[in-house]
Amino acid sequence: MTSGKSMSPSMRLDNQVAVVTGSGSGLGQAIAIAFAEAGATVVVTDLAQRLHNAKKTRDRIIQLGRKSVAVSLNVTSIRSIRRMVKKTIDQYGRIDILVNNAGVNISKPAVEVTEDDWDKVLDVNLKGVFFCCQEVGRTMIERRFGKIINVASQNGVIGYYNRAAYCSSKAGVVNLTRVLAIEWASKNINVNAIGPTFVRTPLTDKLFQEESFTNEVLRRIPLGRLGQPEDITGSVVFLASSAAQLITGHTLLIDGGWTAI
Ligand SMILES: NC(=O)c1ccc[n+]([C@@H]2O[C@H](COP(=O)([O-])OP(=O)(O)OC[C@H]3O[C@@H](n4cnc5c(N)ncnc54)[C@H](O)[C@@H]3O)[C@@H](O)[C@H]2O)c1
Fold first, then answer.
1. For ligand 1, what atom is nearest to the CA of residue 198?
2. How far apart are CA 107 and CA 88, in angstroms?
3. Which residues, 6+ apart, have CB-to-CB distance to 89 below 8 Å?
4. What is the predicted pLDDT for the residue at 9?
5. Where do the H-state alpha helices sit in 19-127?
């Protein structure tokens, strides 16, 4: 040991202030709860019309003995992002961790994708991620501390049928993660992404009601099963923690081996 500091990396997030976008359901909700279990204060955010879901996540976090508020947020609106950042800073004084999780998908053959479909998917999945990073990043730059984790997808590094807009948006997130990591490295801000395979959530539930689709997906996953939200949360807690201090610009694939073939 060269200093008096402990050499054991910690995955605790005690007293860290975390914002998770789209945390009223699915992966975002699981991430918010995992953060609370790791000791963090969590700002749970979702669209105004889904704020009741965000409040349920908040209540579960408070039951765990952590602090939490539910704040409405539409990531496609810079004004809404600014309002959320202000509310968070007013309430807790800072943002240590940002998870850009909010996302949508419209599955269609490429020839049927409309301009509206394209704009909707790119606005939430890529523009929304960028402007949340920018607004929160400004406050992190001032404090010279921050951890940003973008929820991309395995579909950010490989293609998949009927997902021209979705795959494009997630590939954008993977490379945006690298750019911000480089720009903000000198400000002590780590920017990483995760790339999950198919996980059963409200976003994908309908897809998996179709047996042929489920079998086609399972055939491509060497570990032989779909993801559960709990398969994803450990990686996000890790990337938010001091154990991942030297990792930046990386996309951690959580894909059961899909992209290893
Ligand atoms: N489920 C999967 O198989 C899977 C795989 C890889 C990546 N992902 C990604 O994980 C993330 C979460 O997906 P999920 O499966 O939990 O889906 P979900 O539909 O359960 O949750 C998405 C959340 O984002 C919110 N949201 C949508 N538009 C928003 C907006 N404009 N502003 C703020 N919030 C908004 C929704 O209200 C919802 O709470 C997405 O980015 C998705 O692309 C999911």
1. 3
2. 34
3. 95, 139
4. 85
5. 26-37, 51-63, 78-92, 115-122
What is the SS3 assignment for 172?
A: helix
CA of 3 to the centre of ligand 1 (A): 43
For 224-255, letters b (16+ CB in 10 Å) and e give eebbebebbbebbbbbbbeebeeebbbbbbbb
Is 92 a residue of the active site?
no
Q: How confident is the model at residue 37 (pLDDT cuts 50, 70, 90)?
A: very high
Q: Is the pTM of this model over 0.90?
A: yes
Could you give the CA distance from residue 182 to residue 74 in angstroms, rounded to a whole number?
Answer: 27
| pLDDT tens track for 186-228 | 999 999 999 999 999 988 999 999 999 999 999 999 999 999 9
Ligand 1 surroundings by CB, under 6 angstroms: 21-22, 24-28, 46-47, 50, 73-76, 101-104, 124, 128, 151, 153, 196, 198-199, 201-204
Query: Structural domains in the chain?
Result: 17-254 (3.40.50.720)
pLDDT single digits (tens) 65-112: 999 999 999 999 999 999 999 999 999 999 999 999 999 999 999 999
Q: Which amino acid is at 8?
A: S
Question: Which two three-digit tokens encode residue 168?
Answer: 């494009």
Query: Which residue has its alpha carbon closest to ligand 1 atom 30?
Result: 74
